[in-house]
User: What shape does this take?
Amino acid sequence: MNRLPNTPEGFDGSLRQLQQQADSHLSAATLARLRQGRQQVGSRTSGAPSRRVGWLLATACSAVLAVALGLQFSNSSPPTPLAPTPTIADQSEDDTTLLFDESPELYLWLGSDNLAME
Assistant: This one.
């Protein structure tokens, strides 16, 4: 049974040897057809101006869109301020004392020893 080599160099060498064996079994006509097909594909992809124009058009459109969005956000007016909220100083004394008197159980719970156990 054939075993694969353990080192990368040995693996590369065995693959090169297999490639040379496969190349030696091909006929000259087959090699000529493969070479001709490879040249035709290479000539089609190297001079494709329609692809270049497509990429250029896509790049230009995205640049125009980015500039339009940038101008839209730079010309926007600042947000309107919200109505001022009343502070505790604005409320009467009775209102501030009600805030602390609403839940006396909370203060009892905070001062209890059970809080440390939880």
Observations:
- The CA atoms of residues 85 and 91 lie 11 Å apart.
